[in-house]
Amino acid sequence: MCASIQAPLLETMPIRRYAKTLFSKAAWHAYNSYRKGARYRSRFSQAAAVLDAPRETIAAFQKEQLEKLLQHAYQTTPYYRELLKTETPELSQIPPLEKKNIRAQWDELCSTTFTADQRIENATGGSTGTPLVFYQDRNYWNQRNLSVYYFDRWAGWNFGEPQLIIWGATADLEDDGHWKHWLGNFWRNQYRLNGFRLTDAAMLAMFEQMNQDLPQTILAYPSSLYQFATFLSDNGLIPQWKLKGIISSAEMLHPHYRALAEITFKAKVHNRYGGREVGLIAMECAEGRMHINARDLYLEIESPDPYTEPGEILITQLNNYAMPFIRYRIGDVGMLSDEMCPCGSQLPILAELLGRTTATFRTRTGTLIHGGYFTRQFYNLVGISQFQLIQETFERCVLKLVINVEWREEIRHHLVQKIQEVLGADVVVTVEFVEDIPLPASGKREYTISKV
């Protein structure tokens, strides 16, 4: 009798998955038609044609887009009118745009050709401290999405196919549990595991669900992907999924993260580099090279020789006319390569990327707390100029603070309480007041460090 019950179930499950995939493909088509117009397929083809072009064609395209952007910035933004002095400046002579410039001259950076209703507010995730708020426009988002669609296909992604997302950005998860959030995941055919709170129970439940829904790709924080793979490996849980590929993004992909993920999930990990300020910057191809998204942005390395000596990465976003970012210092270090990739793509190559990483904290019960949780507690807090939280052991943390004249003693109690809420009420949080928190040799400020 058991066999007679199981056989229909085995036949029904693939039909259910197939039907949901078809529905999701249709929903993606409707979404893109609404956002990008009825001709979005031809727009995607046009975007792909640029990204597939010879290197000389790509360079000519970038030159044309840069000229248009600089002219627009000079004519419509007070900040760049004062800075550039002319519509045709030499790009290399323009001072880099710093985060402090954006915060101090936010209004002056906004283009006068966009009304308040036409501006779309966005913000960084705050992994390096206080989030940076800025504007983008609808065309930027349309162009950004077309490029994401293009590059994610390198990892096997396609519209409507089930995808597991292990993520933790505040802006992406703040509506978690809301019906709109659920509906969005449903029509996209996406399943989300909260990378901020990777409990054993949550990871086991997602593993069991994915054994039924069989994701085709995974999109994840590298550290969260590693922790999920570690959990499965330690517990002898073998995924039944036949993944086409894995996309890692938003953090540094360390070699041991990649190695364990590829062994556990039996699929290649494609590293994707980007930022909320400028969109997708580069993505790893099948041959392991990081190709720059030259259609949407122009990337420079602030170095005497960007092909032999690493330097800070400067990004000029070519599509965001609402608040132009020209030579924006994104806060990472990299180096270029002039090789031609065996994969066939002639997009320029980012040979080395030395970015920032976010620590993952672990409690004695095995719960994993993403470092982003802690940096969130400092959002909009006055009285603190710098901070660094170090998990020394399961029982002890050190919170280093550089305070200013707005400091109040109740801030200390608030922060200690927030830390103990996730690490344990009996965890000792030692607050150290220091004059400065020195940068490490990498030049990347570390806000959260776990030694456990």
Brief summary of the model shown:
The protein is 38% helix and 23% strand.
Topology:
Layout: H1 2-36, H2 40-51, H3 55-76, H4 78-84, H5 99-104, H6 106-109, E1 120-123, E2 133-136, H7 138-152, E3 163-167, H8 170-173, H9 179-188, E4 190-194, E5 197-198, H10 200-213, E6 217-220, H11 222-234, E7 245-249, H12 255-265, E8 269-275, E9 279-284, E10 290-292, E11 297-302, E12 311-317, E13 328-337, E14 349-354, E15 360-362, E16 368-370, H13 371-376, E17 384-391, E18 396-403, H14 409-423, E19 428-433, E20 448-450
Parallel strand pairs: 3-4, 3-6, 6-7, 7-8, 17-20, 18-19
Antiparallel strand pairs: 1-2, 5-16, 8-9, 9-10, 10-14, 11-12, 12-13, 13-14, 15-16, 17-18
Describe the structure.
The chain has 452 residues and is an alpha/beta fold. It contains 14 helices and 20 strands. It has 2 domains: 40-354, ANL, N-terminal domain (Rossmann fold), CATH 3.40.50; 360-450, GMP Synthetase, Chain A, domain 3 (2-Layer Sandwich). Strand 17 (384-391) and strand 18 form a beta hairpin. Helix 2 (40-51) packs across helix 7 and helix 11 (222-234) crosses helix 12. Mean pLDDT is 89; it is low at 1-11.
